[in-house]
Design goal:
alpha/beta, Rossmann fold
């Protein structure tokens, strides 16, 4: 199969299962106009995040890696009116675009965009007593995947869901010699999870408009 076929299948799935969405379309257009990289999740992946949050009954969500707020919007739509989503973004310009997009989507009061290095902000959240979160979505710089997951676990509870995006790296995750920091960071995460007793996890390969990659899904099964 080719990338063209993967993209065509994605379009078929989206056409049949996701109705037109002017708000999300505008979010993508505004992000592109601002020069943000086009590395947001695909629409069907965003809908998957939304459904996972609803299935989990999430009332408090943490996102590591905001970009333009596209996945943030999908997640925020799953929250009840009194829910809360905190999303972390290192780049102030990206955060400004996301803030505008989220306000346009009607989530200015539901979502808080925090600017700064996520490892610093995660420690601040712990110090503030912001935990526990019911669902954590990690889609940030891949060399720090293990550190982000460790923080996600600390800020969770038994029954929380943790999702990590981009964990297959076009198959590079099986190569211990690549020297790619993103691959190495993801491999460290898998190596840790192979002996982590507090979660039950799986990972799934995906192909589509975004190419060959995958996501990791973990359920916290013990008190943390």
């Amino acid at each position: 199969m080719s990338q063209d076929q993967w993209s065509a299948v994605d379009r078929y799935l989206i056409d049949h299962l996701l109705p037109p969405d002017p708000v999300l379309d505008t979010t993508l257009q505004a992000s592109e106009a601002a020069g943000l990289p086009t590395i947001n999740v695909a629409p069907n992946q965003g809908k998957m995040l939304h459904l996972l949050a609803r299935i989990a009954g999430a009332r408090r969500i943490l996102e590591v890696g905001t970009l333009g707020g596209y996945s943030t919007t999908w997640l925020a739509r799953a929250l009840p009116d009194d829910g809360r989503l905190i999303t972390l973004e290192a780049d102030p310009d990206h955060a400004a675009v996301a803030t505008d997009n989220l306000a346009r989507a009607g989530f200015a009061d539901l979502v808080e965009v925090r600017v700064g290095q996520a490892l610093d902000t995660l420690a601040q959240l712990e110090a503030e007593g912001a935990a526990p979160f019911d669902l954590v979505f990690i889609d940030a710089d891949k060399p720090n995947n293990l550190q982000y997951f460790s923080w996600a676990l600390r800020l969770s509870r038994r029954g929380s869901v943790i999702i990590v995006d981009n964990v297959v790296r076009r198959g590079g995750v099986i190569d211990a010699t690549t020297g790619d920091p993103a691959v190495d960071g993801t491999r460290r995460l898998f190596e840790h999870l192979s002996t982590e007793p507090r979660v039950s996890a799986t990972a799934v390969q995906t192909v589509g408009g975004k190419g060959h990659d995958g996501f990791l899904l973990a359920l916290v099964t013990a008190d943390v």
